[in-house]
């Protein structure tokens, strides 16, 4: 039984904490957050907010593992790198109600929420979010810091570049590549390759504009 420190006490952090609690392997779960209004509050009734992100170094000997629960893809990966450098173990959190193939490869700092499916030989990069009810079919390759929102679906052999966001209910058909730093808007259906740093939307999806490279 271990102790888990979660960075990020917002809505996503709550869901991550519930996922961790459902695993039954942590005796203690606590949060760090830079919003001073939540310091010393208790999340989910049992998970206190004990400091800010800058305090992470002072807790490394008290918590065996740390997890980053931020929606910003680049910030999430950057903090994972920092936490590893100062000595934390970074787990994967896979909800018991998710299905993950034994042949799938899931890298550190990834959370797979309830109802999600990750099928045969899929690869999820560091710091991925496979959110509630999302699905990743066979042989997909997701880069670092990719977020699949609730209900997003990837067909077989899809590749997704680093830091890309597939929004709620979006679909990407088989054998399509979605580039780095791009966004597929909610409800979009992507039927052809998408370049880097692009926002695509509608059915079938088409390019609307460049994305914010800082996202």
From TrEMBL:
Keyword Transferase assigned: yes
Active site, per annotation: 138 (proton acceptor)
Ranges of residues in domain PglD N-terminal: 3-82
Sequence positions that bind substrate: 71
Keywords from the UniProt entry: Acyltransferase, Transferase
Residues holding acetyl-CoA: 147
Matching Pfam families: PglD_N
Site annotation Increases basicity of active site His: residues: 139
Domain of life: Bacteria
A GO molecular-function descriptor: acyltransferase activity
Stated name of the protein: Sugar O-acyltransferase, sialic acid O-acetyltransferase NeuD family
């Amino acid at each position: 039984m271990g102790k888990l420190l979660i960075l990020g006490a917002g809505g996503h952090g709550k869901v991550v904490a519930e996922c961790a609690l459902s695993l039954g392997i942590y005796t203690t779960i606590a949060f760090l957050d830079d919003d001073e209004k939540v310091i010393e509050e208790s999340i989910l009734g049992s998970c206190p907010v004990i400091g800010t992100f800058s305090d992470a170094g002072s807790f490394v000997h008290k918590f065996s593992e740390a997890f980053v629960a931020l929606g910003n893809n680049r910030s999430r990966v950057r903090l994972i790198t920092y936490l590893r450098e100062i000595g934390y173990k970074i787990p994967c959190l896979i909800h018991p109600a998710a299905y993950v193939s034994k042949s799938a490869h899931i890298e550190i700092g990834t959370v797979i929420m309830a109802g999600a499916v990750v099928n045969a030989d899929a690869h999820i990069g560091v710091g991925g979010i496979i959110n509630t009810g999302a699905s990743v079919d066979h042989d997909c390759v997701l880069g670092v810091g990719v977020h699949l929102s609730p209900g997003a679906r990837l067909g077989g052999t899809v590749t997704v570049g680093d830091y890309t966001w597939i929004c709620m209910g979006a679909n990407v058909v088989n054998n399509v590549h979605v580039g780095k730093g791009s966004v597929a808007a909610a409800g979009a259906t992507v039927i052809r390759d998408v370049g880097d740093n692009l926002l695509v939307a509608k059915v079938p999806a088409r390019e609307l504009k460049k994305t914010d490279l800082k996202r």
